[in-house]
Amino acid sequence: MASSLSPECTPLKTSYDVCFNSWFEGYLEPAVSALQTADRAAYAKANAEEYELKCGKIWQEYKACVHKAIKDNGLEPVLQQAREEHPLATPPSSSEHRKA
Amino acid sequence: MHFFSQSFQYDHPWSHVVIGMWRKYPNPKCTHVVSVDVVDRSVDPQTGIIRTERILGCKQKAPRWIVKLFGGSEDAFVREICFVDPATQNTTITSVNLSLSQFASCYEVVRYTPSSHNRTAFTQTAEIQARMALWRSAADGLEKWLCQRFEQNAQLGKTAFTEVLRALSEERLGRPAMAA
């Protein structure tokens, strides 16, 4: 695993990455078939809940550590600006051009 | 403004590529990437789309004139937003530089979609533009350097990720991966 921005967050990052990767691999293959059908919403909801259940706690701990590291490294202003310029709340369409 | 684009195929199914995506770093071929952090992640309960926001920390030597003029340093940070849509089998990754963002913008979009015969199509585009109006020659120089570095890293990334996918494939088949 790569390290975190802040060495003290690296153990939390590693634990979180392991949790997410494990959930993700279990999620993906059946999701590809299930999500083609009307079961999509039900499957997605069940898996979103499972992710929260399995990885929710470690995510909160890691996230808190990372957000502090971002602040301590002075990255918050540029991150905020980048988020305002390109919120990317939804996937960009193939024809979408970025803001000048 | 400089444009960059490339596309090719990986000899792996889409889901394998997408799983491999999270395992790309650390990578001996991409030593310039020194840290990777997830700053936000959500799973849409309606669509099943996974949105991930990451910050990647890179260390790369910048020419001295750039460091002096723009106050750049060895540390460069990138913001990456990734959408994985299992229903449509589309992955889109958008990256933009956080460092030197007031001077130049490097906006990259990568897409992974299935193609035929258990292969995955990869497309990558980038727009690199210096933002400043003054000192045209400095802006041109900065843009050129960013472009060169981008192309170099894109090549390294392709080689590196190909190796990651191969090793992951061996792992999943239960055979020991060959030493890198």
Structure description:
The complex is a heterodimer of chains A (100) and B (180). With 100 residues, chain A is mainly α. Helices cover 68% and strands 0% of the residues of chain A. Chain A has helices spanning 10-34, 40-72, 76-85. The longest helix of chain A has 33 residues, at 40-72. The model of chain A has no long low-confidence stretch (mean pLDDT 85). With 180 residues, chain B is of the alpha+beta class. Chain B contains 3 helices and 7 strands. In chain B, helix 1 packs across helix 3 (136-172). Chain B is globular, with a radius of gyration of 18 Å. The mean pLDDT of chain B is 87. Chains A and B meet through helix 1, helix 2 and helix 3 of A and helix 1, strand 2, strand 3, strand 4 and strand 5 of B. Chain B: InterPro entries: PRELI/MSF1_dom, Slowmo/Ups. Chain B: This is PRELI/MSF1 domain-containing protein. Chain B: Residues 1-173 form the PRELI/MSF1 domain. Chain B: Pfam families: PRELI.
Short description:
The complex is a heterodimer of chains A (100) and B (180). Chain A has helices at 10-34, 40-72, 76-85. Chain A is mainly alpha-helical.
Radius of gyration of chain B: 18 Å
Describe the global form of chain B.
globular
- Alpha-beta content class of chain B: alpha+beta
Overall number of strands of chain B: 7
**Quaternary status:** heterodimer
Number of helices of chain A: 3
Layout: helices, strands, pairs:
The complex is a heterodimer of chains A (100) and B (180).
Chain A: H1 10-34, H2 40-72, H3 76-85
Chain B: E1 2-10, H1 14-21, E2 33-43, E3 50-59, H2 64-70, E4 75-85, E5 90-97, E6 104-115, E7 119-130, H3 136-172
Antiparallel strand pairs in B: 1-7, 2-3, 3-4, 4-5, 5-6, 6-7
Helix pairs in contact in B: 1-3
